[in-house]
Amino acid sequence: MSERLAGIEAFVAAVEAGNFALAAVRLQRTRSAVAKSVARLEARLGTRLFQRSTRSQSLTEDGQAYYERCRRALSELDAADAAVEAGRSTPRGRLRVTAPVLIGREMVAPLLLELAAAHPELSLEMVFSDSVVDLVDERIDLAIRSGPLADSSMLAARTLGRQWMGVYASPGYLARHPAPGDLEAMIATAGSDHRFVGYSRDTGPHPWQFHGADGQVKSFHPPARVTFSGNSLEANKLAALAGMGLARLPAWLVADAVRQGTLVRVSEEPVPYGYALQAVWPQARALPLKTRAAIDLLASRLPPLLAQGGPGTATGPGERTVI
Asked: What pTM was estimated for this model as a whole?
């Protein structure tokens, strides 16, 4: 029975990963072990499950039918495991979490390390990535995602807070370039009097987004006078500190610099703009205790951390806003 299940697991992993090598990585086995498991499964069934060539592999007709039934069977086994896990009194087992690089390292990881330290039978594995990871394919228990979510019947979500955004600059920069009267005026003039720190993603330069006075979301693309651009908000913060221009940054990231007076929030926004931070997990009949404990901890501890420097935050001794 053990070998039979191992063969089915290897077969399903090979189908979903696309080849034996990637299936081996997912299952933490060697490629030859995965290939042998599938070969023994084919021998037991008396049929070929894959059509193989030197460059590709595809399912046979029997393989496709067998995969669909095996996938459902493994899903039922996963649900059974989750039901048992949900009935436990203490989190245990492996908790695999993915989160964006910056907020994952600075906020999520420290909190989840506290959870792991409080529960010695819990093993924590974190994957830091700014790309959207497929939770089912990568066997992820929990994902932390920023911004709007795509519709999915396979996933569940819970809002953890918001990353409030602001426009910041160094006092030295503002001494050379007077602050815009308001953000809508800056957008209207395309920021003609200013230099900018830009943020780029894999898809290209990322626009600054605001709520206008009418409450509608508006986008501003910094013009050609971008003196620094990067795909790291930490690096953009350093560029702003160095006086290279106006930067659109999360309030929590620059809260210390604002308190110390090394960065200044350039203007208030009538309707603050923030990106929702959400916990996302595969939909299941019973949520495992380890996942529920992580979500509850993040939901209780992240909001005050994200609120640093955001709307309604008290002004400290070194803080000021240029309007």
From this structure: 0.69
